Amino acid sequence: MRGRIIIGTRRYSSWSLRGWLPVRLAGLDVEEVVMPLAGGHTASIHMISPGGTVPVLDHDGNLIWESLAIGEYCAELKPGLWPADRAARALARSVSSEMHAGFRALRQAMPMSLYRKAAGAGRTPEVLADIARIEAIWRDCRGRFGAGGPFLFGADFTVADAMYAPVVCRFLTYRPELSAASSTYCDAVRAHPLMEEWYRAAAAEPESWRLPAVEAPL
Ligand SMILES: N[C@@H](CCC(=O)N[C@@H](CS)C(=O)NCC(=O)O)C(=O)O
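^ thats the input. predicted complex w/ glutathione below
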């Protein structure tokens, strides 16, 4: 093994999913270490992560934190994690950065909780505005560059898909109304083998890691 990736509870840690997907897509030979989240300011995370957050990748002596930085690191090791075409790559980086920096209303009102019963919850006007913007992004990427496959930039699952994967998880939990094209994209992301692996591993996590605040049915 050439290092480790430290992630948080899979049921809840959306940023961990964003970092873990490129690590696995790039085939990095790293141990996976899960730190149960305490619902903010988890003391054990502050001891190992310069930014006080997960995910953190420790690979070949390089310590990388921030999910998007992990995606960039993996993309340097594995071609295909960003689109090959420069215009497509520019768009992929723009929408990935927009996700990394924004959509606060959605993230707060619809926290990732893979197995929560919460269809119909969380639809504030601010959340609906975030969702409309996300659907516009997906439409734009798929309309301009997605013809070759089911993902944002076609056949390859890129860092951009990884950045939006936890949004897909939220949509599957909270079930907001989506266009047919958005639903089809969500289904494609959910069906990816790595997403299946993540959901299965999340289901197997100890019950004692569950956080009632984000498990309560809505
Ligand atoms: N901008 C960071 C956000 C990372 C983040 O907020 N991670 C959460 C877990 S999903 C965390 O570590 N929270 C601290 C805690 O729970 O103590 C990234 O992209 O990696």
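Residues 8, 13-16, 37, 40-42, 45, 53-55, 66-68, 100 surround glutathione (CB under 6 Å).
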